[in-house]
Predict the 3D structure of the following.
Amino acid sequence: MLTNPKKIIIGLSGGVDSSVAAFLLLEQGYEVEGLFMKNWEEDDTEAYCSAEQDLEDVDLVCQRLGIKYSTINFASEYWDQVFEYFLAEYKAGRTPNPDILCNREIKFKAFLDHALSQGAERIATGHYVRTATQNGFSQLLKGLDDNKDQSYFLALLNQYQLSHSLFPLGSITKPEVRIIATQLKLPNFEKKDSTGICFIGERPFKKFLQQYIPVQAGEMINEKGKVIGKHEGLMFYTIGQRQGLGIGGSKDNNNDPWYVAGKNLDSNQLIVVQGSNHPLLFKQSLSANAVHWISEQQPCEDFSCYAKTRYRQTDQKCKIKITANDKIEVEFDQAQRAITPGQYIVMYDHEKCLGGGVIC
């Protein structure tokens, strides 16, 4: 227990993870307050958005834990710093990852600034990651639960953000979190994990995008340039996608399923291939820009490490070549499937997250 309780404001989503994280902070002797963030209003209807129910859950949890909470609206910041980028990437034919940007700009910037202005020493969240300090630098480490580690989504955090953040769940597992919530009789102990776009939630994706980006249908072609179908708009497809293409086997009796292998923006054509192991689905290397190093010190020379190009992917051995400020070339030991422009490559030195960048 702390002899002089320090004020921590924890982001409460209404989910079980942040609720148990708040309890663990209380157990450690902190003075804990909650903050519920509402960051989306554009089409906030009962059909799509669960913010009202989430707020009810936050209220019940805080009553159970005996802590205060407040609410705040960062919808303007979310639109300017996250959603406009999200739309621009889709318009450019790429597939963005808004959760990573949302963490950097909203949860660990707008929220952090607000919490510190309210007298908090640090903020806390329910992410499954750990931190450490070495030689005066904050490090971001993987959560001990391999199935829930969320360091991939926090790879753009800087030294200031990490040094002012606590992650109570980093050293326990999701099943343990459920057990704690059950023992505490928290009202949300059985609540399912949230899914969908950060702060926007899960909704019919095509219909959602069509509200903001004009749809331009076009041709589907195979690797030889033969037209084999029509696509509904390049923004609706991602590299490696199988479902929703609406085409069957080819005329040469090949009944293997079709996969998205690429996009030709100039001709508005979607390139598809047959078979999950088609060579066009694999690449040995990639380029990335807007690269962020958690140490805030760009390496002076090329080095080897591990990396992943999507969440939950197994770490892959690779070599990193520094090509310019904030730019790298990555060569993998083994060819990688469905590398997707717009997504993030995140680099690791075993359990330590080094940083990440946007795949070109």
Summary: The chain has three domains: 7-205, 215-276, 282-359. The chain is about 25% helix and 30% strand. The longest strand covers residues 282-293. The chain has a mean pLDDT of 91.
